[in-house]
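User: Structure with zinc ion, tokens only please.
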Amino acid sequence: MSGRLVVSSPKNLGSERRVAAETALRLYGLSSVELELEEDPAKSYINTLRGQVEALRLVETLSKDTEPHVLRLHVTGLDIYFNDYYFCFGLAFKNAAVVSIFRLRDSQLGKFLSRLRKEVGHEIGHLLGLKHCTNPRCVMFFSNSILDTDFKGEEPCPKCRLQLARSGER
Ligand SMILES: [Zn+2]
Ligand SMILES: [Zn+2]
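Assistant:
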């Protein structure tokens, strides 16, 4: 699969950024360039009434700041939301996406990392053109809660795989 991916995060999320880059390569064959940022750009989009980041405004900006043929994934430690949802784990818009680790944390590191791989795999799936999938075990299933994330697998289901293969042929 072609296309270049830039995976960014603030300094303190270096290991999470690495996990995201590894996930992109393992799941989709996408190699990436890692970008360590001094400041988390998500900070600029905090809705002070909610104390959460407006994810859509953030990804719109990331998309504008990224060349059209390049994909961008940002990992933030801040809590994010979208529209009327109380929160979201991630959001994709055009060629840019964000994943928040805020609600993925767990006392078990393995569980946290698995959640991170799932949310990263989900958002990159969107960047590659995949929509939500009705299979609750598929990584493209929409997570309404962390229970959905824990239930789903880390990989796209055969149907989503087929769709990716088809869009790659175009
Ligand atoms: Zn989604
Ligand atoms: Zn699927």
